[in-house]
Design a protein that fits this description.
The chain has 424 residues and is an alpha+beta fold. It has helices at 2-14, 22-32, 34-47, 49-55, 102-168, 174-209, 229-239, 241-262, 305-371, 377-412, and strands spanning 60-72, 81-98, 267-279, 282-297.
Length: 424
Amino acid sequence: MRKLILSLVLLAGAESAAAETLAEAMSTAAETNPSLGAQRQRLRAAREALPQAWSEALPQINVAGLAARADRDGDGPGTDTPPEEAWTATATGSQLIFGSGRVLASTRAARAQIRGAVADYDLVLQTLLLDVTRAYADVRQAQAVVSARETTVANLTRLYEFARAQFDAGVVTRTDVAQSQARLAQARTQLVQAQGAMAAAVQAYQRLVGCAPSALDAPPAAQGLPADLQSALDAAGRDSPVLRGAIADAQFADANVDVAAAQGRLRVTFEASAGEGADFNNDLTEATTDTVGLRVSVPLLQGGLIRSRTRAQRALRAASNLDLAAAQRSVQESVTNAWTGLASARAAVESAAEQVQAAELAYEGVRLEQEVGLRSTVEVLDQEQDLLTARLALAQAERDLVVAERQMLAATGALAAPAAEEKR
């Protein structure tokens, strides 16, 4: 089982050249991740809403042609006539002159829709970058855990051999040897489990980034973090994609109210057409027709359809405003929790580093005291366990700090792929 897990980890690391820094991993994911690529295409589709809204205010020209053959057959005298073969060609054009604000409302709705799509794209991008950060930190933590457990196995192996040598010399009892052997077997089992967790972390990283990790550098401290909680809240109010999306949705719903109401108002259109037709067998029948005029239309009775649509859009506008209020509360909560989590993560790293330093000194001291007979085997084993616990706590704290810093940036809308050209 151990060999299988090690082979999986080595195979994943040898598949392709991987990004070795967090910035490179973020940039690679932003360029190659298929989920983000799909969201980018949705953004491009949403941008087409604006020219579609403009099109109603631009000239409309249509050209049509018809060639037909007509046969008339009958039973009475004179009903049989030769077939008639004729053609017609028509060109029509129209230009909206007055639409009671419908085009302006449609344009406002399109712009709000685009802003919402941009906010959705930014949210997906930041979610991806935060997931990449977690995957990157998880791989580094898994590597640190495997290294710590390998060190523990090596230390316990040395203690077990020392205990056997002392037993052969008649210094300790068989119980001391059994205790050392049991701790060593447990450590080996936990090492295999840690290697399995590392293989899973590697696969999660590869799923997000597109390539397997190799030697991952320690991420530097995040840049652009807010100085205090109020600064973080102010930045989130400006840049949070969640809040920008909610604002865009409210503006979109407000514009749709005007679009629905404009459908029941006056509409003036300038129209012109030119047509020509003739019989295929008689050029003398050729004739042209030109028309120019203004079309004025006002819906008088639609069975309550327009008013119903307007009421529905007003209800949706009210719902969007409530969603905006909920989004503001949610963003405030996220920023506050991220700020608290960042402060806790910083304190945890400092405490864990001190714990490791003290545990290392204590372990070396207890081991030396055991060699001169001042400490029992079980005391050394317990101190080794304390040292392992401290190292695992430091690995967890360092991982949490890396994630907490980027979580703070994501909560304020400032998390971005370093040196990545976003193709929107």
